[in-house]
Amino acid sequence: MNADYLELTNLTVSFDGFVAVDRVNMSVLPGDLRFLIGPNGAGKTTLIDAVSGLVPATGSARWAGEDLVGRKVHRIARLGVGRTFQTATVFEELTVTQNLDIAAGARRGVLTLARRRTRVPEVVVKAMETIGLTDLAEVPAGTLSHGQKQWLEIGMLLVQDARLLMLDEPVAGMSAEEKDETGRLLRRIAADADLTVVVVEHDMDFMRAFATSVTVLHAGKVLAEGSVEQVQADPRVQEVYLGPGEHSKAVTEAVLGEGV
Ligand SMILES: Nc1ncnc2c1ncn2[C@@H]1O[C@H](COP(=O)(O)OP(=O)(O)OP(=O)(O)O)[C@@H](O)[C@H]1O
């Protein structure tokens, strides 16, 4: 099997004694589009921060045969781990091509960057096609819509050869069409390119439409894991989203979506 799978064992993050991520065990295989959901403060962002090396953790986070815990951020990135943040971080005054070229350059190193190049590298052309921004190649990134900026950020991870992509609320603030487009893009990336994708998301409609598997975090712990149908039908999941007690089908559906 492709060694590019993520395996968290007892992953734990504490902030001055407060345990934000509590002995999490979780495996994500290539080709999977894993959604990480849970109420506010459940520890979702902290978990992907720990995997990307942004906060110290204990336990282990194995990826591509190495343990990421204790490694520096740049070293983790070099192992093919990439993430986006809730706010897109593109260079607004540079074009789509230039943004991708710089990201690809970061991977190539200073020597290659210093050489004059007259044409756009193949990897940039390919990423632009994947994210659907070929027609906007020469447009400054600052003029892109919110959704298009998120896609550009995903493209920047692809040209850096990221094989594990962790995306923090990618569709927040997007239009319905942009959400659909993003879902299809993530499916393409996961299934066709066989990359490992973890999406932190609050948008239940988006999760239902595109997740291939779901992990539910609550108070730093894994509460449930499985297919969309399995986690939606889990009474413990319904309870953390709705509070304890009996709920009408209509109320449950309003929060967790239809089909529960
Ligand atoms: N740097 C920090 N120092 C102290 N506490 C923190 C820090 N970062 C996060 N926390 C706490 O850890 C808990 C988990 O936060 P986190 O942002 O990971 O949750 P989340 O599931 O991503 O929530 P949301 O969906 O609201 O973004 C929260 O109680 C938060 O206040």
From TrEMBL:
Alphabetical keyword list: ATP-binding, Nucleotide-binding, Transport
Source species, domain of life: Bacteria
GO CC annotation terms, alphabetical: plasma membrane
Pfam families associated with the record: ABC_tran, BCA_ABC_TP_C
Keyword Ubl conjugation: no
InterPro entries assigned to the protein according to its UniProt record, in alphabetical order: ABC_AA/LPS_Transport, ABC_transporter-like_ATP-bd, ABC_transptr_urea_ATP-bd_UrtD, BCA_ABC_TP_C, P-loop_NTPase
UniProt-listed SUPFAM superfamilies: P-loop containing nucleoside triphosphate hydrolases
Molecular-function annotations in GO: ATP binding; ATP hydrolysis activity
Domain ABC transporter: 6-244
UniProt-listed NCBIfam families: urea_trans_UrtD
Name this polypeptide is given: Urea transport system ATP-binding protein
Protein's organism: Lentzea fradiae
